[in-house]
Structures are given as structure tokens and as C-alpha cells.
Amino acid sequence: MERMQQIVGRARAAFNSGRSRPLEFRIQQLKALERMVQEKEQEILAALKADLNKSGPNAYSHEIMGVLRELALTTEKLPSWAAPQPVKKNLLTMRDEAYIGYEPLGVVLVIGAWNYPFVLVMQPLIGAIAAGNAVVVKPSEVSENTARLVAELLPQYLDKDLYPVVTGGVPETTDLLAQRFDHILYTGNTAVGKIVMAAAAKHLTPVTLELGGKSPCYIDKDCDLAVACRRITWGKYMNCGQTCIAPDYILCDPSIQSKVVENIKETLKEFYGEDVKSSPDYERIVNKRHFKRILSLLEGQKIAHGGETDEASCFIAPTILTDVSPESKVMEEEIFGPVLPIVTVKSVEEAIEFINLREKPLALYVFSNNKQLIKRVISETSSGGVTGYDVIMHFFLSTLPFGGVGHSGMGAYHGKHSFETFSHRRACLIKDLKMESTNKMRYPPGSQKKV
Amino acid sequence: NPYAGLVSHLRAAWLSGKTRPMEYRVAQLEALGRFLDEKKQEILEATELDMGKPSFEAFFSEILLCKNELNVTLNNLCHWMKDEHVDKNLVMQLDSAFIRKDPYGVVLIIAPWNYPIHLFMVPLIGAIAAGNCAIIKPSEISKNTERLVAETLSCYLDSDCFAVVTGGVPETTSLLENKFDYIFFTGSPPVGRIVMTAAAKHLTPVTLELGGKNPCYVSDTCDVNNVARRVAWGRFFNAGQTCIAPDYLLCTVEMQDKLMPALREAITEFFGPNPRESPDFGRIVSDKQFRRIRALLSSGRVALGGQTDEAERYIGAPTVLADVQPSDPAMQEEIFGPVLPIVTIANMDEAIDFINARPRPLALYAFSCDSKVVNQVLERTSSGGFCGNDTLMHVTLTSLPFGGIGNSGLGKYHGKFTFDTFSHHRGCLHRNMGLETLNAPRYPPYTQQKLGILTATFEVKRRGTCTLL
Q: Name one GO biological process term (chain B) (predicted).
């Protein structure tokens, strides 16, 4: 506990010194991060390979490219984002200065997750630095190689007191959460999300919670199944299904179920070859505990494809389940693995009802040639975000806020949304000390005339 | 769980989708306008009974400001509801990318007693505009207004979608056990913590409009009379029971001496020689609050006012305490009464240090003829909002966000900010079903060549670089 107090105390003292506030300083830190990513690319890729068996080009495109893109965007736009924003004035304030000022919140805590361990720590960090804060970074201990690397690298490139890295597991995180922060951004699961928010409530700390859930994927009878299934296969099995916005399960008419299975099987062959286990592009489950958890979801299910596993290497083959019952275990929790259940529904109404009976998901996907149908599904459901006729992609457009709703989270980030999440928008009205006569209307004694 | 039935009822109405069409929202908002018009007298009477609120003040804060928010909302609702299209990157040029404003569902609005209509009405306007159902929980302390709202609001709003719940701490605690899709709370920081902790159990997002001690710095170069009037107005409005009132003054000893006669004159100008008889000076809302504020009077020395009458819950004339020490009772808690302590400091730097050593306030005020001084105070401090050379006025501009920071709260509202508070901003990308070949670089098997294409198409180039083809 004392160690955490010291680390956070130092970060707070560093923030109070004011040095993280000037734009030049923030840009300099962001540029240092950029150098870090470029110079240490090999080390980062090696850590991702060790943690999740991610291949080089895969890890680069999913974790490094996005970070470099965010750094470039943020460094370019920061001056305009941070500029005071004048607002529309009314009659009484016509001669005054009225604007919204963007100010840092103070000391921010970023808690990362293990599935995309680098980008999920870096992207919030970029926004928090850009907004002028001190940032305590807590990478996930489950992806231990990346955590160790982040702890080694950040102090080599960034201001050590302002941006400390804290490593450790549940006890360390609990100690950290007892400290006072000015904002906490947590990426992880719903259960821990509640714990984080309850801890934050003690200090009235605002939170951004990027959680999860079961992201539904509705496939309409009227759509190009080959294309739809290729895109779904990509999104479902990337990172061995360990993606918060992976299409968790499919909803479709029983008449197209077998065609869907066929198309996915074809695509899997195209992506990973005949022997998935020897494909350098297919990842592994992060640890035994999750391996066992996912395995138990297969019990009693009709396996239309896949199902092979190897505990020693935490390998689970890309798996498709058909005619899944809504009450089964695989439909109760977020799968977070390469298992794709298909639940049949007879109509889009049934699909919408099915979705709405459940907790609001982080992402929602719908495939149909009928634009009106897609619009209808979006309008009659709720979710963190949506991609129509594809999966995952809304994550990659930084002008869209990325976040959940209900059990899938609260708040959002990416691009300018990160900057705003980590800033305080302070209302400023600067009046003249003269012009007192205009004020007389509002002073007592009251009268009908004044009214 | 006594409220489970009510919450289910509202949730069923929510799931039916009836609150979503714009016409429905407009109809409910217009009904709120009629409530304010038709029940104006009752509102003025109830707030007068509750805390002796002068009808001039009640009209201004409970009716006029609410109608402004209503009109800004009705005038702009169509525009606010529209999908907000966003800039796209290279890869998505042919796609449709927009932010959809989705209602949250069933929201809870908990209001305090000091501006008992305004502080549920303005959030409610935004909640309805955003398409939600709502439960309103007015404060039991302003009991006449509570009764008025409980008895009459339902005549104006759709009772399937909007309900008023009355009661005190036990009832509110039970209410908070239910799952809401958003909770909007205005009140004190300790209760704010309780609300957020209850919300955490259901992962319900919250806006907390809390309070604190709002500092008011007066520099040596200023127009003393104008300062005195503006500060007195802000401090004694609603007998000081305002979350954004200037809580205490920071100035030099010399300025304190100059301000005193000016404050006396302003008070007399506002409330006459005997403020007890002025219809424009309010009363403290309850015996408990009265006793609490009375105990703060033993701070520094009473320079103006200082008399109290328990029967009437009168503290006056509007009181100014001079030479108050940081350790005095009046400096330990938010005053929320017609008492203005003056703490003397040597200069602006000391004032700024004093402010920064304390929790961040909801509002911060600085008075000076020298704009550099005002800007210095603004830049070197942190607060929910800031007003230079006046008090309270920044919250009457609906284009400015109103909210706290740190102990004074989280989230913001007023104008479009209320609509945004009660909407989930849903990122939507509607892609093209064709052009599948463009997606090829992202699929396994992963190769360096594919990576090169992805990098080229996805990258954000820094300005000043160029690729020679």
C-alpha cells in the first residue's frame, strides 16, 4: 500500500509542478512514445508473440500500426483540440468573453487488458498525455511479457515521475485502486468493472469502463453469404477469438445455417491452411484457466466444425456450433475464444427481440443487402458500437467514439474522444467590471417591471 | 423492493419504443412548458413556504431559466437527434460513418431542495429530449414543492413513462437498489459517493452535481462598489442556499476595509434598512440547516448582520464575517447560507495557493479591473466553472457546460450538454457489401506485402511528409 501511495504521490507532485501542461511538453512526450514504438518494434513484437503467439505482421497491424496512427493524429491535432472553444452568447453576455477551456484532470489511472496488451495500454496513455495529465499505467499481469516490456520501456522514453508503470496482480491493483485518481480508464470484464467503479466512487473519480459482453451477429437471408462469412471469420478468429468486439454468436434463419457453416469452413482453410495448428497466423489461448473455461462451453454442443484442442499448447481449433440453445452455457457468458455458436431465429423481429432480452453488447453486427433492414436493427437495439456488413471495423475509425453501454461499459475514447475523456471542460465567463447598469435588472428589490 | 413494480412498468414502456419518436418527445416537452405556465403561482407559493424564496428569485430561477432550457431544446431537438456524420479515413471512403444518439432507457433524477423545480426540471428536459423514460425524486426537505410536483406533474406527463417518487433517505436507498440506465444526482458530496457506489453495482453511468466552497478572489485594483453589488447578489440570492454562490472572499486587509462599507451599502440597497421585512430576502429551509449555519457565525468577527431568529429561520441581515481564519468553523464546510466570510491574504499568489490547497470547487470567481489578474487566477486554478468579474452568471448561458470536478462533481449539463448527457453516443459504421478485394490485405495468411498495403492505406501521415510515387 505504501509503495502505491509513493508512486501516486510522486505522480501528483509532478503534475502539481505544472510541467505536463504546456503543449510543447505534451507533444515532446508523444514524440518520445513514437520513437519508442519505432525503435523497440522488434522487442514489442517478441513480447506479443510470447504472450499470445501473435505473428509479426499480425501483431504489427493490430497493435503497432494503430498506436502509430493515433500518435500521428494526436500530435497533429493537439493544438486545435486544446484551444479554448468560444460559445454562443446571449443578450446579457454579448459583450463578455465566453468559452470552454480544456484542462487536464490531474493524475489518471490506465488499467490495460491482456488480449491486446500493447495497444490497450498505449491508446489511453496517448490521450491522457495529450490532455496534460500525469498517468499511472497498470498493464495486465496475464500478458506478462508485454507488461514487463512496458515497465522497462516507458521510463526510458518518458518522464519517469509523471508516467510511472505499476506491475502486479490483484493485490497490487487493489492497493492502487485505494488511491485517489482524477480519472480511471479500465479495460476488462464486467465483474471487475463494478469493482473499479465502486472503488472510484469513494473518491468521486469519474471512470471510463471498456468492458465486454456477447456481441451478436445477425445474418439476413438476403446477403452475399460468401462475403459475409469471410468477414465474420476474420473478426471471430483473430487473436483466437480473444477480442472484446469479436462477433460472439450468430443469429440466422435455419435455412441458411448449413451454408454459413460451409462458407466459414472454406474461409478458415483459405486463412489458416489445412492444418490450423501449424499456421503461423493462428494464435493460442492466453492461459490454462481460459483454455479450460472455453472447453467447458463445448459440453453437450453440436460441433459442426473444429473442436480439436491441445491443453499443453492452449490450442483450440476454430470451432462452429450449430442449433445452439439460448439457455446453454455457451450463450450465457462472453466466449472470448474461437468458438462460434449459431442460434437460429425465424425472422429479424425474433433476432431483435433476442438481442434486446440480453445485456447491451459492446458491438453489434448485421449483414443484409437490405439497407432498411440494417437501419431497423440498429434503431431497435442498443450497443456500444455497430458495424453494418462487416465486423470489428468501427474500432479503426478514430472519429467514432469507441465504448460500451450498460454492462458493456461507459464512456468512450479513440482520437479526439480520448482527449476529451481525459480533459475537464471548464466553463469560463469573463465579464467587464464596468457596465453595472445592465446588472440593475437582476438586483433586489424585485418588481414587476424588472421581471 | 417496493419500487421494482414501478421500474418494471417504466422499463416495459421504454421497450415498447414509444419515447423515441421526435413527436412524442416534443409533446412531452411542451407539456412541461404548460406545467411551468399553469402552475406558476403554485410554484412561487410552494417555494415561498419552503424557504421564504422571494417570488422575484423564484420566477427567475424556477420558471424563466427552465423555460429557456425548454425553448433551446425544442428549437434544436431535431438537429441534436440527427446522426452526426464523421470524417472517414481512406479505407472507409465509400462507407457511412456516424454517431447515433441512442436514449439510455429508464433514468433516475434525484433533485435537492434549494432550487427544487429547476434542479429536476432541467435534467428532465434533457432526459426526455434524448428519448428516455424517467423517475423523478424531488427532495423531501422542500416538502411543499415535493407535494406540488408529486400531485401535479403526472397530469402533464405520460404516466407510463414518467413517475415521481417521494420520500426520504429510506425511500431513496430502496430506489437506488433498482437498475437504472442513468442516474443524475444533485446534492452533497457524501451522498454523491453513496449514489455512485449504488450505481456501480449495476454499472449505471452517473452525473453528479455536487458542491464545495467556491472561492471569490477580489484584487486590489477593482471598482469596489460594483464588486460589492455583484458579490452580495450572488452570495445572498436564495439566502445563500446556492451551490454556485461565492462561498468566501479572499482579499488583502486593505481591500477588506474598502469592501465593508460597499457591502453594507449594497445590502441596504437590495434589502432595505431592515432585511427581515424585505420580501426579497429568503429564509433557511429547515431547523437543522439553520442551526448548522448559526454555528458557523463564531468565525472571525461579525462585521455586518449576524442576528438570527430560530422561529423564522432568519439569519440576517445578510452577514459578513471579517478576519476569518482558515481554521474557523465557517471555513470547514460549504456554508450554504447568507454568511460571507472574508479571509485576508497578502497578494494574488497567496490567494491562488490557498485555493489550490483545497478541494476543487464547483465555481470560482475573480474580480479585477486588470484582465491579466483574472486570467492568472483562471489559469493557475481548477474548478467546475469560472466567472470573471461577476458571480453566478456563467450558469445562465446554456452554451456553457455546467458541472463540477473532483469533489464538486462529475459530468455536465445545460443546453445541448443535457441532451448529450442522457444519450449514448453510438459509433456506427455501415460498410459496403461489395469491393471485397479491398479487404484482402487484412486477411490471413499474413505477409509483409499485405502489411505494406495496410500500412499505406490506414496510415495517418504527419503534415509535412509526402510520398513520392
A: aldehyde metabolic process
